[in-house]
Protein 1
Amino acid sequence: MPSSDSSPNQPDRRPLIVLAWLWVGVPLAYGLYELVRKATQLFTA
Amino acid sequence: MSPPVAPVGWSRWLVPPAALSVHLSIGQAYAWSVFKPPLESALGLSGTQSALPFQLGIVMLGLSAAFGGTLVERNGPRWAMTVALVCFSSGFLIASLGAATEQYWLIVLGYGFVGGIGLGIGYISPVSTLIKWFPDRPGMATGIAIMGFGGGALIASPWSAQMLESFGADSSGIAVAFLVHGLTYAVFMTLGVLLVRVPHGEKPVSGGPGAFEGPQVSARDALRTPQFWCLWVILCMNVSAGIGILEKAAPMITDFFAESSTPVSAGAAAGFVALLSAANMAGRITWSSTSDLIGRKNIYRVYLGVGALMYLLIAQFGDSSKPLFIGCALVILSFYGGGFATVPAYLKDLFGTYQVGAIHGRLLTAWSTAGVLGPLIVNWIADRQEEAGKSGPDLYGTSFFIMIGLLVVGFVANELVRPVHPRFHIPAPREAADAVQRQQPESA
């Protein structure tokens, strides 16, 4: 699905999109990693 | 402050990370329990006292979302995210001062009252903007943001614990931890403030129908419709049923299998709680996205109908099979999260996008009610059963049947939802704009 109207004169937003998603994605990945570590105790402890 | 309008070419995919930066931050509230034991030993508090900042925070969340919703609609998402940033971060800074000076009332005031306003305004801040940017997939869009609220605790819980370990669990260590939290969240939420934009001309950049197409109902009129109160009952029942498990997850799984050949250790019970958090978060994005395909009414039929069936399975056969117990609990928690994430899109379907944020704010009082109702039922019944000499699964059987009853009530309320009567509709977009102007002086 297209994300925006595009024209040759408009600035390329892709670097900003990547940066913004990394900004929120990296902490979330850390949280998920810690969660998986804890959840595995259910099957190993 | 006028809402920031997107320039031509602005990507709508910049709006979900803006929303996530706020929701991942304020979701920290669910990790408050990390601070409880250190506060209790450093300041000599009871368990009830140390829960006060969190409880006040949740009450303020409901109140500020209900009463601040109209302001959020009027001033736009950037204003709302700025207010959320200032309140949430300064709440931590005030709490830091309280811990440093060993004045517990400052922690309650800062984290609970001031921070709680940040929770409520922050929770509803991106909802209507996301729906306007993604009118073709409102369930997915709001699901991403509200998933962030679940994810916030996953990040904060290990991060806060690590910080207390580094700075120390005494009052000065707690003060430094609060200070770092406040400053870090201020920086993290700034992304949302800077990135959020409303679509140009209230139209999506591409795809989907126009944001103001279809019937539109004002927040004031929405409260006069039976549909709003049906949704209120649905949300309240669904949340109560989910909290019933979430509140006592660790002792519940331990009690269920205490006399089995494979009892559950404390570490395994903590793993079960973590797994429930994952199901809660995954349900928010998965089920709300599914609602875009099968419809809002159908997805709530699943949450409430299949949820009741899951509770019945646990009540009847839960103690005979650990995988069955865990599987049913995970499904229930995924429906709990899904219920939260799908409700903004359900509101949009019924009342339009005109004041959907304000209506959503008022609906969140159902969450506050359920937050009291669910734990009260499960804890009160478990205590009475224990006094009567019962143990193991017998402590929870009655609660489970009450939860089934609540879900059935919610199911019936969902069946009663019909399109809103045209007499509540705002006639046309032009008149809607006039109506906004007329309402401003009244509520200013």
Protein 2
Amino acid sequence: MDILSGRKHKIAQMIERYLVKIEECIECFRKALLKYFEKGISREFDELIEKTHIAESLADDMRREIEITLYEKSMIPESRGDILGLLENTDRVLNKAQSVLYQIQTQFLQMPEFLKEDFEKLMNINIEAFKGVVKAVRKLFEDLKAVRDIINEIDKCESSSDRLEREIIKKIFQSNIDIGEKILLKEVVIETGNISDLSQIVGDRLNIITAKRLI
Amino acid sequence: MDPKILGGVFLGWSLGANDSANVFGTAVSSFMVNYRLATILIAIFVLIGALLEGAPGLETLGGITEQSFNTAFLISISAALTVTIMTILKIPVSTSQAVVGGILGIGILQKHIEFQYLYKVIICWIGTPIGAIFFSIILYPSIAFFLRKLHMHFLTYDRMMRFLLILTGIYGAYALGANNVANVTGVFYKAGMVNKFEALLIGGLSIGFGALTYSRNVMITVGRKIIPMDAFSAFISVLSEAITVHIYAIIGVPVSTSQALVGGVVGIGIVKGIRMVSGKTIIKIVIGWFLTPALGMAFSILLSYLF
């Protein structure tokens, strides 16, 4: 039923562009970390951080533009509040991803060889959770019913991430590296895991938004 | 035309000012439709409702007792005073109950009351919230089932809810006009001061005038009490209210839109298994059932002795 499709709706189009920008940002984040695993702190790593930052800034601008448009459009206040809350929470996930990169960059963190595989796994799980957020938000503007399945996927990612975080932290503190380094590595592990925690918060919000509308 | 009909116009004005909230309160207080547009829609559809389906109510209210120019005027003033006092007491007031109270007072003095009309009216009063509860319980799951089948997305849902709230507001205004016009000019029609068409026209216009000039505050207050519900529940409660009030318009008994709206909200609470209306509100409605006609009656008797 074309009349029920929201593809032509201005806000839906703006949100779609915002989601594409977020995907670009996630991709930069992934590439930056992969480069870090490969070469450590390097010029290429710095460049990819910069690219992530630019994408994040553009996404921020888009979000603000959507927020203004939301107030210009006549909408049920509840719907407006739901979208605003959703965008702000999605932005937090984006900021968290960026902060992981800055943490590594500013603290000149060296990733020990024995952690690289696990950390890459952790990165993939958290990226998966964040991609789930993008997918779920997109589905919100296509088919409300489909949102819940994606939220379950995000929840699974969050649980896997929690388990893996604990394992990695154990490994860190069982190793012989310097205690200071141990603490810094632990922090970056927790910070990375926060991406899926925050994704889950967006998922919870989406759950409420859809529940209210599936009556 | 006798200037005493101004008493009815005044009553119609206060009815329009108070009851507009029951049909467009949610849409206006949540900024889905602006106040000016809402009041214009109310004024138009109240008049249409009054002209097309307001006649049966005139017969019922007119049938309770005999009327003269003077008694018709006294009943209007008694009802207006009752509505004012009940509003001050913050008890959801029914203009219909105030008018019937006033008619009863005159009937007692004249020792002439047609009880078959009176019983019909009282049964319908009790049936108003019950009817709205019933419709709410039936409509909520059935319309929800239909909407779920549509696989809508977020913005379409929002757009549809806005459209439905405005549409039910229009229907509510129509039902309000059809049902409540008799409160305003029923007694004047019975007294022979106006013919049927004039009664419906003056009644409809005066309710519309009340909506256009003085409904903002009540509309926003009532709307804000209702809108914390989700948009769908707000839609169902107004729709249940409108259907109930419309049915009573067809039967020919003026009832309370406020009480019908509360019934609609209670029905949603029953469907959802939660308490949507406080016990205090229900007690106030029950008190209103007795106090409103009693006050109307007391005022009409008192005013008869004074004038």
